[in-house]
Fold this sequence. Notes:
By secondary structure, the protein is α/β, with parallel strands linked by helices. It has 2 domains: 10-217, inorganic pyrophosphatase (n-terminal core) (Alpha-Beta Complex); 223-355, Diaminopimelate Epimerase, Chain A, domain 1 (Roll). 39% of the residues lie in helices and 18% in strands. A hairpin with a 4-residue loop joins strand 7 (238-240) and strand 8. The protein binds guanosine-5'-monophosphate (5GP) and manganese (II) ion. Guanosine-5'-monophosphate binds at residues 128, 307, 326-329, 332-336.
Amino acid sequence: MATLTPIFSAAELRTAQEFINQSNNVVILTHMSPDGDAMGSSLAMRHFLEAQGKHVSVIVPNAFPDFLAWLPKADEDIIYESRRAEADALLEQADLVICTDFNEPKRIGSLGDKLLSLTCRKMMIDHHLHPSDFPDLTLSYPASPSTCELVYRLITRLSPITDTRSSITEEIATCIYTGMMTDTGNFSFNSNYPEMYQIVGELVSLGVNKDEIYNRVFNAYSADRMRLMGYCLYQKMRIFPEHHTALIYLSRKELYRFNFQSGDAEGIVNLPLQIKDIHYSCFMREDKVNPTEVALAGGSKTKIKISLRSQGNRPVNVFAKDIFGGGGHANASGGEYYGPLPEAVQRFLDNYQDYFVL
Ligand code: 5GP
Ligand code: MN
């Protein structure tokens, strides 16, 4: 295939190779509420390093959704919330920690403090803006639509050209494809990059069954989740036509009514963008403050998780940062609010008109 633009420098590749060569125990971390790109990038790196004889563990801050549980070796991920002592021990023994798909320790909750306390080498592979400076090697490319694509580029550059086909096994290809697909909404946003399709073509020729992956990820709702989406659209969606904006919010009581499981809220924020002339969408859900976040919560028992999406040249990350102390990509951002849901909603209503102007 035509060669890809070599985005990593020779020095970066040399350092990455050296870090890998000099490590035996590797821990891979990825962000809170792992999505397809987080799961795909961490597991692809795991398979790649295991093939080189390394001992590798993947630690995720909290549970991943069922629709990603089929990914090869996802079932071996260690969930920090429930297996903290074991995860801490692995981190203390690690000689290399690889952080995929997040740019700052805050994005992994209480695992962040642990990460910063470690003296071993740290390497970041990520595509979010403004990477923090804790890693010894930062491979950060915000122009890339997914971390999985970066992992593909890294693995293929680290392997001798003749070896690329054998180093990207079908398992690795499957993990990588999953993240490329989910972070672009099945190639419907952030997806005008010719090289991305070159990579997809290569992955399919390596054995990826893209239709099956689509089905496993996007056609895997529980009936409860489907009904929750219906409820959101029928009863809960507020539309502000002058600002081309939609807002949906759910209390814990409402989530309980629909037997809410981790991952069930994924994608709800995108739904209003299917309405003609709606270009901005916000989704909020009430959550508990978990014991590790008490300091952040300042006495509040509730945490509101905010998701923002937009289309085209209408960034929502500035709003996410200014109003909800969050951030993210131009068209997909989020934040958190520690306090009651009605307060978070009011905060949105008081401010969105200043930001959502196009
Ligand atoms: P989601 O709405 O899927 O939870 O998040 C979309 C994107 O927004 C994530 O990929 C991440 O870049 C960003 N994001 C979500 N929540 C937060 C947050 O609390 N802080 C920051 N800095 N970014 C967030
Ligand atoms: Mn990502």
